[in-house]
Amino acid sequence: xxxxxxxxxxxxxxxxxxxDSLRIGRDNDNDLVLDSREISRHHAQIQSRAGDFxxxxxxxxxxxxxxxxxxxxxxxxxxxxxxxxxxxxxxVDDNSTSSVRMDRQGRQSVEKTIVFGMESFLPExxxxxxxxxxxxxxxxxxxxxxxxxxxxxxxxxxxLCAIRSGNCSSGFIATHDRKGELIYRxxxxxxxxxxxxxADQDLIDRAISSATVVYNRHSQDYTVILCAPLNIGKTVExxxxxxxxxxxxxxxxxxxxxxxxxxxxxxxxxxxxxxRIQAHQxxxxxxxxxAAEKRTIVRSKTMLRLYEDIxxxxxxxVPILILGEPGTGKELVAxxxxxxxxxxxxxxALNCSAIPEGIFESELFGSVKxxxxxxxxxxxxxxxxxxxxxxLDEIGDMEIALQPKxxxxxxxxxxxxxxxxxxxxxxxxxxAATNRNLEEKIQQDSFREDLFQRLSCFxxxxxxxxxxxxxxxxxxxxxxxxxxxxxxxxxxxxxxxxLKKLESFSWPGNIRELKNTVLRLSVEARGKAISMDTLMQxxxxxxxxxxxRVSPRPNLExxxxxxxxxxxxxxxxxxxxxxxxxxxARSTFYQKMKKYRIIMPRE
Length: 603
Fold this sequence. Notes:
single chain; 603 residues; alpha+beta; 20 helices; 27 strands; 21% strand; globular
């Protein structure tokens, strides 16, 4: 089944399966409703024709765009991405992750995805006359309800709003327990138990069975008892019960409509609160799972949202581009994409900047004996990643001459080993990452725009450490524990003042720089407490005002050169150990030493 992946500003991914057609627009009769004034009422439509899917503009005001190109009608291919205002949509024709729902007539159907505001609950006549005080009071109550966070608080507030809107004197909200009995969840001005108060059970039964607002009215004393069902989804979970005296001239139908609107909106909010609580519990469980199994430290909302997006898009077999500054953990994101994809093959990583141009093609595609001097029959990284994932790190540094060959594989999934004529078809998920500005490189003609379009079906941005400071302390404690286990020394303690200073630092080298700093602190402390004196001995940047010390920042090459030298000094110029700490191959470390003319000191 085809799917449409919708995201807003490179986050908040949603997967929307459909069958033969999908209507997109602002009005509620669309299959995908985008709640923005910049979106036309009926903006666009996807339709199936002769086995292919086509995207068409429905005469919208702001149009459909692919990059800077405006689209009126086009055939969709797997991974095709377009945007409507701030929404980015990717078409995927992949059956592996979709599910079909059947309607009552046994036909395939798709549940609508709708984003709505509170004014959509008001009748048309009310929307036209919102300036009347009663309607404004009701809207104010609805805004008040929208600010509650917990279910008990929400039910208390809903009851008070209903009593105020209906000018009632007392009431309650009750929901069914596991035995099906109604239990009070919120009450207002009810007589104490045993004083003769009895709810109208017949009225309650009528409200619940009919799923509508019902009432009894006593003409002699103008007393009104009103009962409204409390629906969560398609289930009636309980009721709202009100009693009061009608004012002279007040219309019961008007009161009935008011309470019906309030309860309808309240029911949707209650469902949203429960969903939010469940999502929070899932996030906590997800966070614990990442920390325990993936050794990934996630505490900030930004990173948690990123990993939720990873979990959403991981099963969809299209290329993904990961963007982020050096040292932010892009390789961990790529690994998580593979873990959550449930692909049966392996995870193969290839650093595009670490392999010389002359042998890069054979590394990627493989070779046969005699292809070049010293060549043997060797599978490339793509073959090794068959049925799995290949991670192309530093894709922005790939030579322009090699880019068409990678593009060809992305288009047809076929490779030919260097020196061979046989063609092999592979099933490989391609994940690429870079810290470069690829759009600038496209303008400089050093990166192909068509390759960028193929790689960027999904874009994940990894935030720098300075934008997720909540992660700094747990990362520090994780590295302290890890180094103690790895080097068999006692784990040092760390004071609050030191943690505060480390948390305030801007960390231009991100997690990689933090990791190396913690390693130096551990070596300096020798199992004792890490104090402010220890911190000052490790680096002058931590003395005084951190923000002024690190500005202006050195360029990336200066940072890398300094980082390599500091790592070598930390390890006593042991290149193997330094390469291990830097997370790169020993040969790559040698190349970088040569590049920056870092010479080992004579003994």
